[in-house]
Every structure is written in structure tokens, then in C-alpha cells.
Amino acid sequence: GAVVSQHPSWVICKSGTSVKIECRSLDFQATTMFWYRQFPKQSLMLMATSNEGSKATYEQGVEKDKFLINHASLTLSTLTVTSAHPEDSSFYICSAPGLAGGRGFSETQYFGPGTRLLVL
Amino acid sequence: AQSVAQPEDQVNVAEGNPLTVKCTYSVSGNPYLFWYVQYPNRGLQFLLKYITGDNLVKGSYGFEAEFNKSQTSFHLKKPSALVSDSALYFCAVRDAASGNTPLVFGKGTRLSVIA
Questions:
Q1: Among partner residues B41, B42, B103, which is closest to A109 by beta-carbon distance?
Q2: Is residue A107 a contact partner of residue B49, using CB atoms and an 8 Å limit?
Q3: Measured between CB atoms, does A98 come within 8 Å of chain B?
Q4: pLDDT score of A53
Q5: Smallest CA–CA separation between A42 and chain B, in Å?
Q6: Do B100 and A97 touch (CB under 8 A)?
Q7: What CA–CA distance (Å, rounded) separates A81 from A65?
Q8: A82 touches chain B (CB under 8 A)
Q9: In this complex, do B44 and A91 lie within 8 Å of one another by their Cβ atoms?
Q10: What CA–CA distance (Å, rounded) separates A53 from B55?
């Protein structure tokens, strides 16, 4: 299947700093990517939909100024957690619908390996 | 609105026995249904999907799932469980007519296979 990477896999930072997480589609182009947050032993909570070349669409209750999303190319979306605080500590996962080697429509979403953020 | 229910938080099964992880869904139109598996501190791995056609879908690692429209179910099954199957399993759905929209996930079921 199609491959999605995330970087970094782990981040430990001090409260008040900003953290950028990258999500890349390695063997396909993704006009849309999704960002999720997962708390321990819980399901995935959709945060926002990232659209290449346009503004992201945020889910209700997600602060767009807190979680900045940029989708500047067909293979890269970034999530920046601004002025991070301990309550932002979580596991962040991105996904993209894709077909390996192509730009065709796919019903299947492929997920990155996730980024664990710990804010001290 | 779309929704997914995974009624069991935890499923325990002995190695070599068959396993079933339950999932029911609700969508207004025709469903696209998916199963994903998550190992500790990892992202989700795609197992299988139902889009159209044969109700019995075969996927990775010997897993299969059966789409039952009348019962709005998509239970995940495997004839013989392995200890390495122990993980967190998520069922997901979206409406077939909804375009490039995110999946709606169930809360997950933790599968524990005991040697």
C-alpha cells in the first residue's frame, strides 16, 4: 500500500515552545491529508483536514491558532503546535487517501507512524 | 451522521482459537468499511476494506471480515489466532457518496491472544 511518513516520531519540549510535525506521502500525491489526535487507550479524534493550496478545515473545538496546518505541496503537510502546554501532550497521527505511485482517488486512508509529543 | 460501534473494549482468546472482533455501523447511504490495527506507539496499519461486491473480504495477516447489510455489521475474524495478533483494532466507516472525507472510527477493541 501507499506509504506515509511522519517526523519526528518523538518530541519532548518545554512549555511555551512551538513544535512542528511533518507528514509526507512518500509514493503518492495527496491533495488531502487528515490530522488526528489520540489519547492513551482511546480512539482517534479528527482535528483537521489539510487541503493542498488552501486553508485547512478544523473540527469543532479545535483551536486553529493553536494548531497551525500548512499543506504547501502535494506530498507534505505540517502541523505546528504553537506555545505548547502540558495538556497538548498526545499522540498525533496523520493520514492520507492514496494509491501507491499515482494521484488517483483511493477510498483507503494510509496512516503515518505517529508523533508522540510530551510537553514538560 | 456516520457512526461506528465496537461493543467490546477487550477480547481475549487463546492462541490457535478463532477470533471475532465486532463492529456495527450507521451511515445514511452505502458504506465504505475498513479495519485497521495499531501496535503500541505506532500508527494505524490497514488490514482490509469493503467497498462493493463480495460480502466476505479477505485482508492482511489472514484476517477477513463479512459485510452484513441487514445487520449493519462488519465483524473482523481470523480462523486461528496468533500471539502476535495482540493489538488494538479499529473499525471505520464513511459514506460512499461523501467524497474525499475522513473516516469515522470506532473506539477500538483491544485483542489479547494468550499462549
A1: B103
A2: yes
A3: no
A4: 85
A5: 6
A6: yes
A7: 9
A8: no
A9: no
A10: 38
Are residues A105 and B36, on separate chains, in Cβ contact within 8 Å? no
Strands A67-73 and A44-51, by their bridges, are: unpaired
Q: What is the pLDDT of residue A102?
A: 53
**Torsion angle (degrees, nearest 10) of CA A102, A103, A108, A110:** 70
Residue A1 has a pLDDT of: 64
Strand residue runs (E) in chain B:
3-5, 10-14, 19-21, 24-26, 31-38, 44-50, 56-58, 64-68, 73-78, 87-95, 104-105, 109-114
Distance (Å) from the C-alpha of residue A65 to the closest C-alpha of chain B?
A: 22
Contacts of A110 in chain B (CB under 8 A): 46
Q: Over 80: is that where the pLDDT of B8 sits?
A: yes
B84-107 tens-digit pLDDT:
999 999 999 988 887 778 889 999
What SS3 state is found at A118? strand
CB contact under 8 A, A1 and B43: no
pLDDT in tens, B17-74: 999 999 999 999 899 999 999 998 788 899 999 998 899 999 999 999 999 999 999 9
* DSSP per-residue letters across A27-93: SS--SEEEEEEE-TTS-EEEEEEEETTS--EEPTT--TTTEEEEEEETTEEEEEE-S--GGG-EEEE
Region for A73 from its dihedrals, namely left if φ exceeds 0, alpha if ψ lies in -120 to 50, beta otherwise = beta
